C-alpha cells in the first residue's frame, strides 16, 4: 500500500506538470483552432533562460518569476510577428508555421546553449519529506505538486472571476461576437499566447530537475500533455487539466507495475491519443461540434 501511495503522489506530481502544459495547449487551440506543436520547445527555451539566470547568481525563485515574465513578453511578440500574419491562411499553412516554430526554437536553443545535458537546480530542498512512518517523498516531488496545483487554481480563478479572464474566454470562443461587445480580440489573443508561455515556463522549471536540461527535453512532456488535453477535451480547460493528471498517474502506475513499462511509456501516450481520436474525438469534457453539410 505504501508503494502504491508513493507512485500515486509521483504520478500526481508529473500529472500536474502535464496538466498546466495541456492547459497552455487548450488556450492556443481555442484562439487559433490549431495545436501549438512548439509549446514544449517554448517551455524548454524558457527553462534555459531560468538556468542562465541561476548561473549568473540570481536566486532560483526570482529567476523563475523573471523567466515567466520574459516568456510572457516573448510569446506576445512571437504571436504578433510570426503567427498573426497567417491567422486567415489555410490549415496546412498554419500547421507548417507551428512546425517551423518547433524547429526554429529547438535549433536556437541548441545554438545558444549547445546540446550537452545540464543539471537544473530544484526550487525546493534536496531532501525527502516523511508523510507517514514508512512513506517518504522527495521534496521536489511534493513542491512540484503544490506549485502546479497553485498555478491551476490561479488560472481557474483568473478565467472564472476576473473581467480580463472572462474577456479572454469570450475572445477565444467567438471572435466576431466579442468584437461586437467591445472586446479587443487582437489584444486578447496576444494575451492568451503570453499566458500559455508563462504557464509553460513553470512546467519547464518543474520538470527539468527530474529529467535534466537539454534542447530535446520538451518533446516527451508535450506528448503526455497532448494526450491529457485530448483525453479531457481540447476545448475544455478543466477537462485538459484533469486529463493531464490522469495521464500522469497512468504513466507512474505503468512504469511501476508493468515490466519494462518505463521503456514504452511514450508509446502508451501515443496509443491513448489515437484511441481518444477514434472513439471520442471531443474528449471527456470537450464540446461536440456538429456541422450541417
TrEMBL record:
Provide the membrane topology annotation: Multi-pass membrane protein
**The keyword Amino-acid biosynthesis is annotated on this UniProt entry:** no
* A Gene Ontology BP annotation from the UniProt entry: amino acid transport
InterPro entries (UniProt xref): ABC_transp_permease, BCAA_transport_permease
Question: Where is the protein situated, by its record's location annotation?
Answer: Cell membrane
* Molecular function as annotated in GO: transmembrane transporter activity
Entry's transmembrane regions:
6-28, 60-81, 93-115, 135-159, 180-210, 216-234, 241-262, 268-289
Return the GO cellular component terms, semicolon-separated.
plasma membrane
Keyword field contains Nucleus: no
> Mind listing the UniProt keywords for this protein, alphabetically?
Amino-acid transport, Cell membrane, Membrane, Transmembrane, Transmembrane helix, Transport
The record's principal subcellular location, in a coarse class, is membrane
Query: What are the coiled-coil residue ranges?
Result: none
Which Pfam families does its entry note? Answer: BPD_transp_2
Family listed = Belongs to the binding-protein-dependent transport system permease family. LivHM subfamily.
Q: What is this protein called?
A: High-affinity branched-chain amino acid transport system permease protein LivH
Amino acid at each position: 500500500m505504501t508503494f502504491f501511495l508513493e507512485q500515486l503522489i509521483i504520478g500526481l506530481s508529473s500529472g500536474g506538470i502535464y496538466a498546466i502544459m495541456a492547459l497552455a495547449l487548450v488556450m492556443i487551440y481555442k484562439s487559433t483552432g490549431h495545436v501549438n506543436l512548439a509549446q514544449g520547445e517554448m517551455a524548454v527555451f524558457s527553462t534555459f533562460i531560468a538556468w542562465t539566470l541561476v548561473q549568473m547568481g540570481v536566486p532560483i525563485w526570482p529567476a523563475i518569476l523573471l523567466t515567466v515574465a520574459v516568456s510572457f513578453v516573448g510569446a506576445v511578440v512571437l504571436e504578433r510577428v510570426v503567427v498573426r500574419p497567417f491567422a486567415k491562411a489555410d490549415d496546412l499553412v498554419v500547421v507548417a508555421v507551428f512546425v517551423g516554430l518547433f524547429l526554429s526554437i529547438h535549433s536556437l536553443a541548441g545554438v545558444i546553449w549547445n546540446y550537452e545535458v545540464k543539471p537544473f537546480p530544484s526550487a525546493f530542498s534536496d531532501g525527502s519529506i516523511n508523510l507517514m512512518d514508512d512513506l517518504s517523498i522527495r521534496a521536489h516531488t511534493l513542491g512540484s505538486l503544490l506549485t502546479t496545483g497553485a498555478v491551476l487554481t490561479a488560472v481557474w480563478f483568473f478565467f472564472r472571476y476576473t473581467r480580463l479572464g472572462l474577456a479572454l474566454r469570450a475572445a477565444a470562443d467567438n471572435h466576431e461576437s466579442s468584437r461586437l461587445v467591445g472586446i479587443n480580440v487582437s489584444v486578447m489573443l496576444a494575451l492568451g499566447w503570453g499566458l500559455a508561455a508563462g504557464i509553460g515556463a513553470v512546467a519547464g522549471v518543474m520538470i527539468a530537475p527530474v529529467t535534466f536540461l537539454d534542447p530535446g527535453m520538451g518533446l516527451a512532456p508535450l506528448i503526455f500533455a497532448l494526450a491529457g488535453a485530448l483525453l479531457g477535451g481540447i476545448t475544455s480547460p478543466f477537462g485538459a487539466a484533469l486529463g493531464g493528471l490522469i495521464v500522469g498517474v497512468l504513466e507512474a502506475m505503468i512504469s511501476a507495475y508493468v515490466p519494462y513499462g518505463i521503456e514504452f511509456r511514450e508509446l502508451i501516450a501515443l496509443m491513448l491519443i489515437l484511441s481518444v481520436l477514434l472513439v471520442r474525438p471531443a474528449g471527456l469534457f470537450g464540446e461536440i461540434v456538429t456541422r450541417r453539410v
